[in-house]
Here is the input.
Amino acid sequence: DTGVSQNPRHKITKRGQNVTFRCDPISEHNRLYWYRQTLGQGPEFLTYFQNEAQLEKSRLLSDRFSAERPKGSFSTLEIQRTEQGDSAMYLCASSPQGRNTEAFFGQGTRLTVV
Amino acid sequence: ILNVEQSPQSLHVQEGDSTNFTCSFPSSNFYALHWYRWETAKSPEALFVMTLNGDEKKKGRISATLNTKEGYSYLYIKGSQPEDSATYLCALRGGSGGSNYKLTFGKGTLLTVNP
Here is the structure.
């Protein structure tokens, strides 16, 4: 297993366009998370999946954002009608079930909205 | 809202210097404290997970301590090397009644080690 994989690594899009990112977690991990990091800030929690169930969504996620994890494997994060404020690093992480387990992060997708 | 503070925001040291950073937080009621190292163009790499007051963890030249009663954790790097240059992130899991899976990060400390 090569760890958490995210695609694409970079995305430049025009304002108003839709974008979709993909995350492939470590295969035996049933927990999957999306975080967003903007300039000068630490990563902020967006959403959490346990298997295929989306159990929590942050208030940071407006209704333009949607995340899915069909079949409890890979996950996608879609942003509709992108705005310049959506420009950020989008990080995906996964972890096994357990109280004190570590979350393993992907390299992130850098989104730039122009 | 759980507030995780890290200081300093950035740090420049010479190769061979030892250094330390601080992570402070208001609550002792949390599941775990995590330290990550994030090098440019790479994934954040987990360094330590600490849960108990007085915990001390060590990995090579890097070590960390946790004081839950006073609400801080220190990360120490002994004999800094240029390859230690990275952003060091502290994150609290849980805390203030939060869920046991969600990480709340500080803004990080950017370390630059000059050769």
Remarks:
- Chain B has a mean pLDDT of 92.
